[in-house]
Amino acid sequence: MEVKLLTRIKVSDISKEVEQLVKLSVRDLMTLPPPYDKPGMEPEMTEPKSEWRSRYATDLDGYVGIDIPWRPQSKEEEEKLVQRFLEGLNKLLSVEGNWTFLQPLLLSLEYCAKCQTCSEACPIYVSSGRKEIYRPTYRSEVLRRIWKKYLTNSGRIFSEDIELNARTILRLGELAYRCTICRRCTQTCPLGLDNGLITHEIRKLFSSELGIAPKPLHEQGAMQHLKIGSSTGMTPEGFKDIVRFIEEDIKEKYGKSIKIPVDEKGADILLIHNAGEYLSWPENPAAFAIIFEEAGLSWTLSSQPVGYDAVNYGVWYDDVMLARIALKHIEIARKLDVKKIVIGECGHAHKALTVVADRVLFDDYNIPRESFLPILWDLVEKNKLNLDPSRNDFPVTLHDPCNIVRLMGIVKPQRNILQKICPQFREMNPSGVYNYCCGGGSGFAIMQSMNFPEWRSKVASRMKFKQILEAFKDTVQDPKIPKYVCAPCSNCKGALRDMLEHYQATSRYNIQYGGLADLVVNAMVDLKSPYLEFLK
Amino acid sequence: MSLTEALLTSTYFTILVFAAGLIYVWIKWSRKPLHLRWELYPVPHEPGRTHYGGSYMEEVDWSISKPSKSLIEELKEMLKEMLFLKRVYMYNRPLWYLTFLFHGGIYMILLWFASLLVNSLTTVYLFESAAKTTFIEYLIIFFGYTGVFATTIGAVGLLVKRIVDSSMREYTSKVDYFNLSLILVVLITGLAALGLDPFFEIARKYMMSIVSFQITSSVKLPPITTLHIVLLQLLWIYIPYSKMSHFLGKWFTYHKVLWDDEPNIRGGRIEYRVKEVVRGYKIPWGGPHMKKDRSWLENASEVE
Questions:
Q1: Average pLDDT, stretch B106-131?
Q2: With contacts defined as CB-CB under 8 Å, which chain A residues touch B181?
Q3: Cis peptide bond upstream of A48, omega within 30
């Protein structure tokens, strides 16, 4: 899709004394396919409130991702911010501070050829109408130039074109939250360099040294997770109440008496869901309970703090927080003496515990961790569940959560299931490991402060919305036909929920969304009523 | 010492410094500590799954059986990237025409070096057969001409593109321009030298002097050829310390990061290294949630 190029912004402009570097407008954004190709189909973009400007970093694009008041209020505070940032950068490039990603970070900083091959792979850059600040190489080049100029001899000799002042840091901090770390750009890099990783590393510098991170990720997220038991604020008692409610609901609505196992020692599987599911989409953990019981699996949930919430927000911004949460998950599994941990429909939890945290575990802590997807496919393939595909006879498409697919290579099981139980299943384009992010990745789905959700739905989720409209182009304009976006990830569902609401796609065109387990249960023949709400 | 002798001596020096530089770069990247897993699919060594980007994690209980790897699949992908610049071809076609000429030309020049070397070694140490000599001489001429012209056209094109295309210009640093300009100067002096030695007779004699460790009396280098050799030597010495060593860096970005899906098996090599890093390194971070100067393990296990 051709989008007119706008006035170019230079890398060095990041430190410019202007109120706002970029102003977004719906006219500039990537055009959406029918029926959203007409004017007035989506709300206009709003201005940031004037009072935000004195406390937050609205200097970048007017949107606020970092919702803690961190703008320096005096010259001294500005100087201190610059000094602490440089100290943090030094630590980020040290073995002690950053053994976790030092090699990939330095490789990505040293070898970029500035060929811009990665730009067109980025859904945010393209959706924004190719705004320069969102180009995958923009924030990387800012960091690279600061590093070269202020911390290396070659940079001093060749004098890199960048000025490090408080405004540079404020904008760079926000810019680290304009990339979902989907790493689509990395797939296209001829040198194998990783601008998504550089985003991750900038976030880490801000968090680990300066204590600056969006509240939903750190203070209300990872910290609350460790202190209370869940990033949602759910306590163990609250969790047990919800489990009881789910049991009653299953019996009342679907006529099945199920006792959901909680804290059962010696079970084969410890199943951990994203706790957001219990609050926003309890039908998903309920579907798992129905499937696992039907299949006769030996499994349990945990009611221990942290053990009932699979999320690990540390994976998005802070390695120490990642390790803390991962160790807690493992500790709970050990106490329950389970054979393995299985992660429910939560993409980043998959990647965090199975892959990224793999290299902080050892001895008794090194216990198997797996995705639910191969298990679910195994049950469907072996006909352990009595399924009738005609119950799912409506258009279904699959959203691939980046963390499960591109970053873990789990591609086929979910497709195999959908092909077997959904007669009208169709792929998005592109799909599989080349999918587009939902726009909620790397914490965006839970960042609901100020005007950030508007930016997310308009820019970050725009490409996914375009894909959804294209996948359903045969029926999209017929609201009588329900269309289902299957998203086996809690955060993706959160982003889809907000996106569909923003564009009023459910009320106008009957585009629905939900998990994979829900679809499987909907196809079970002995259910007395449809499982999916929109079919009732 | 004559100028030619000095040049010959500096050639040996260049070869040694270049080799030492590459070893240094290799060691520099190899010695970086164990990093967390950060692979990206498709990972091309998954047998039967490469074509769609699948992994061993698609299997139930994958951790019980050791995942198998296909080295051939990995090499195939590596060669496609090295020889044909697959990703630029797929995702940035306008640039590919230029960069393929440039890199393809460099490969030809390397083959030219190799054929000169083979020719000299066989002539000096083995035999001098007319048939062999003629064949290798043809190869030398073929590789030499295609290499120098393709590389020069590619380098000029890349430089022009970098200057004309604003999305590249804004990001290109002075060092990037310096690197490309240095290569171009070497190529232009090489073309001038070629004009004086169209059948590579001087080049063959010079290479023979190198492999025989003695100055062949008939080697008379024109000034432009001398300048070319000096610049070429400087380029070779500089390569390992510049971005031009990306042919080594690329090994690490792909094989040691993006394709590194090796699981941490209990009692295995990785687990041993994990223990070292989490116990050995102390956190220098100053954030309020950090326990500064305490080990990674202490930081990860205790939360206030």
A1: 87
A2: none
A3: no
Selection from A396, A465, A415 nearest residue A437 by Cα: A465
Q: Helices in B122-165 by DSSP H: which ranges?
A: 130-164
Q: Is A411 on the interface with B (CB under 8 A)?
A: yes
Using the predicted structure, report yes or no on whether residue B135 has a pLDDT greater than 70: yes
- Across the interface, of A107, A117, A132, the residue whose CB is closest to B91 is A117
> Across the interface, do B257 and A11 touch by the CB < 8 Å criterion?
no
What residues contact A30, with CB distance under 8 A and at least 6 apart?
Answer: A1, A3, A126, A127, A128, A129, A462, A463, A466
Residue of A95, A148, A154 with shortest CB distance to B281? A95
Q: Which two tokens stand for residue A240?
A: 């047990």
User: How many CB atoms are located within 10 Å of the residue B142 CB?
Assistant: 14
Whether A417 contacts A376, CB under 8 Å:
yes
| Contact with chain B for residue A28, Cβ under 8 A | no
Residue B187's H or E segment, with its range, is helix B174-196
Selected residue of A13, A152, A359 to mutate for chain B interface (largest B Cβ count, 10 A) = A359
Nearest CB to A96 within list B46, B256, B281: B281
Residue B128 has pLDDT above 90, yes or no: no
Q: DSSP for A76-115, please give it.
A: HHHHHHHHHHHHHHHHHTSHHHHTTTHHHHHHHHHH----
- In this predicted structure, the answer to whether residue A1 has a pLDDT above a threshold of 70 is no
Q: Which residue has the tokens 């692979």?
A: B39
Report the residue of chain B nearest A357, measured CA to CA.
B36
A121-147 burial, b at 16+ Cβ within 10 Å, e below that, comes to bbbbbbbbbbbbbbbbbbbbbbbbbbb
3-state DSSP call for residue B69?
A: coil
Q: Facing residues of B62 across strands?
A: none
Round to whole Å and give the CA distance between A194 and A504: 35
How far apart (Å, rounded) are the C-alpha atoms in residues B58 and B260? 17
Q: Does residue B279 contact residue B297 with C-beta atoms inside 8 Å? A: yes
Residues of A in contact with B56 (CB under 8 A): 409
CA distance A400 to A521: 20
Whole-prediction pTM: 0.96
To the nearest whole Å, the CA of B75 is away from the closest chain A CA by: 15
CB B65 within 8 A of CB B58: no
With contacts defined as CB-CB under 8 Å, which chain A residues touch B95?
A: 115, 117
CA distance B72 to B78: 10
Write down the residue that tokens 């062999």 correspond to. Answer: B132
Burial of B27 (0-12, 13-18, 19+ CB in 10 A): exposed
CB A495 within 8 A of CB A439: yes
Q: What does the block give as tokens for A364?
A: 């008794």
Identity of the residue in B55, B257, B286 whose CB atom sits nearest the CB atom of A409: B55
Tell me the chain B residues in contact with residue A111 when contact means C-beta distances shorter than 8 Å. Answer: 243, 246, 249-250, 253
Distance from CA of B131 to the nearest CA of A (A): 42
Cβ-Cβ contacts under 8 Å, A106 against chain B: 32
Compute the CA torsion angle A361, A365, A368, A369 (nearest 10 deg): -70
**Which B-chain residues 181-240 have CB contacts (< 8 A) with chain A?**
none
Size of interface A-B (CB pairs under 8 A): 271
Tell me the backbone φ, ψ of residue A15, rounded to 5 degrees.
Answer: -100, 5
pLDDT tens digits for range A468-495: 999 999 999 999 999 999 999 999 999 9
Residues 6+ apart with CB under 8 A from A285: A246, A273, A277, A278, A344
Asked if B166 is an interface residue toward chain A (Cβ–Cβ < 8 A), one would say yes
Whole-number average pLDDT of chain A: 96
Given the cut 0.90, state whether the ipTM is greater than it.
yes
